[in-house]
Each structure stands twice: as C-alpha cells, then as structure tokens.
Amino acid sequence: MTDLSSGGFTSGVATKGNELGILAFEVANTIVKSSNLIESLKKKNITHLKGTVLYSEGVQNLVSNDFDELLRLVAADKRQELQVFSGEVVRFGNRSKDFQWHNLQRYFDKIIKELTPQRQLNEDAVLVVDQLMGLVQYTSELYQELQVLDRLEKDYEQKRREEENSASSSKGDGLALLKTELKSQRKVVKSLKKKSLWSRGHEEVMEKLVDIVHFLLLEIHNIFGGADDQPTKKGATDHDRRLGPAGLALHYANIIMQIDTLLQILRGNILIN
C-alpha cells in the first residue's frame, strides 16, 4: 500500500532476518492504541457521539452548550491520540535498519498538507489492523509464557544446585521432572514466537503502521475537518480545549450528584423518624 517513490517509500518485500524480537511487546501496545482509536472513529460511534453524548445534560452543563465548541474538543482529543500513536511509529521507524523508515514525521506532515481521500486505503487499513490485532493476541500470550519459562528456568537452576549438595537416594527425580517441564515450555514459547509479532520483520510491520497513520490522518480530517483549528473562547488554555479533563470533571460531578441524592434520602429518613 505505501508508495512514496519520488521522495518517499517504496512498497515491496520486507527485509528478511530483521525480526522485531523483544521490540514486539512495545509494538503490540502501539497497535492496540491504533485499534482503539479506529474503533472510536467508526460511523456508529461518531453518530452516537454527535447525536447523544454531546447533547447530554452533563456535557451541556459542565463542558459547553456550543455544539461546534464540543466538536473542537473531541477533534483535539482524537488528534492528540493520533499524535501519540504516530510518535511511537516514528520512534520505531528510527530504530529500523532500513533508512527509508527514518524521519517519518516529514512524511506524515506531507500527508497532512495534502489530505487526499483514498477509499482503498480506508478498506485496507481496517483489514490490516484486524490482522495485526490477531498477532497482538499471540504476542500477549507469548509475554505470559515467557514469564512462566523464566520461572521454570530459575526453579530448575535452584533444584540443580540443591541436588548437587544433596546425598539423598532420590536425587535426580525432581530435577528430571523440572527438565521435562522446561523442555515443554520452551516448545510453547518457540511456537508463539512464530505466531506472534516477535518473528515479523521490522520493515514489514513498519509498512503496515505507516499505512494506519495515513488512514487515521485522513479519517479524522474527514470526520472533523479542521474543527480543532477554529478559535476557542477567549482565555481558553490547551488544557481547557480537550474533552479528556472535561470527561474527568463529568465523572466527579456524577459522584457528587450521587452523594447529594444519598444525603437527601438520609434527611428524609431522619424527618420521618
């Protein structure tokens, strides 16, 4: 999908022998962020946001009753999430042995200036994320099984040292059992490494991540336009222009309302008694 020939990247076969390895766990967390952001931008969720959430009494009273202002807040939030995700992609790119993935921020800035809709990119990006999330699941399992393997290796070494200093007639039985468990666990880990992001080529995954950033840049623009670029009310700070803090305020406001309701009930019971 990615095509940046003439000053850009060239899509092709990923360089072999350059597996993600231990970096797979960081990449998995980054992929989850992109999946969550894409889910929040789906048509049904945006429709619910615009038609219900932004018109709710809590948001109207605690945040703003100006719909355009609320859209600017949401757009700023989504672009901030994308900035975090794309920043991690840039960092992974800089760690690649292939120089075409270095300094990706320049490429992303170029996309922002052009913002040309691409239907195929839309369809492919969603499919790519779904495929990557399957690898993320195996990567999560690998992380857990590596912890089990680490524990077994420590138990085995401890048991081996104990038996070296032991004169027991049953010497070797416990060690043999642990050795069998250790061998089995290593097979589990080896299998999961093949199924997970661990064994995927760095360049192969980078191409997919870049396409996802490209898609998200276009998708957020298609949904919100330049909403968060519009001027907000005088005196507003960057902190005020994001819905995140406002959402937290709403959470605490709900707690206060519940406490107030309980107090009213208690007062009523006292009066009755």
Automatic annotation (TrEMBL):
Coiled coil segments of this chain: 142-195
DUF3475 domain segment(s): 22-78
Keyword terms, alphabetized: Coiled coil
Example of a GO biological process term: positive regulation of growth
Pfam family, one: DUF3475
Domain (DUF668) ranges: 242-264
Signal sequence annotation: none
PANTHER family linked: OS01G0873900 PROTEIN (PTHR31730), PROTEIN PSK SIMULATOR 3 (PTHR31730:SF2)
Protein name: DUF668 domain-containing protein
